[in-house]
Amino acid sequence: GVAQQQASVAAAKAALTEADRLLAEIITLSKQQLVAETLMAERQADVEIAKAELSREKALLAQEKETLDRHTLYAPFSGVIAKRYVNLGEWVTQQTPVFNLVKQDDLRLNVAIPQEYLLALSSSDGVAVKVTPDFTQAESIDATLNRIVAVAESSNRTVTGLVYLPDNKNFMAGMSAMAEISVPASELETVWLPKSAIKQHPDGGQSVFSVVAGKTQRHLIQTVKQQGDWVAVTGVPNQASVVVSGVALLKDSESVRTKPSNKPSYKSLSRGNQ
What we know:
By secondary structure, this protein is of the alpha+beta class. The protein has three helices and 13 strands.
């Protein structure tokens, strides 16, 4: 290893120092003509051999350091090792996962946003988000919707929103939280629709369907007020052609054929902010 080779280099340096000392003694004695010329040549050869040995040991030390450097893992950022996948001494390749490194700062919350709100949220800057951690006595914090990933999940028709969390707010990587996104006012206009246009979800949610280019588009709504067979809701885009009957079996992006209705539509009713 590196430590063993460093010791070899130190030994080679000591051997060169001793060879230099012996040569100096011989040089002093040769001036007094007290030693043979062959002994002078022998001591000079010993010095050259010691120098060569020191150079060899230094080269081996550099090789050991390079080998160690190539087998050292450098973390791409400061964090906490959450999981280790290999044992000490185990052989790994460049494709072998070794650690799961988790960054403890610059945390962000991934939020699933219904695709109906993509246009309204993408065209607005600084959309306010209230984040509440899922633990006891947690306080809500104010944040901002920083980015929307422009890829929709085909299974649930949602897009991913990224909310960067402030530091020192008792958040840890992997925790869950609830996010309340303030949809821009243009999406919160109230519109009156017949009850038959509203589809009830098993989880208690509600939605309506509009028709765009012969295909249905689902819009999540919130009920504001009810009056007889009419319901005031929010979440319906402006100028949307809403399906007012047969919505129980409809699904998103389903091909449909429309026909005029004799019943009054929501377009003839009042629309305003509440």
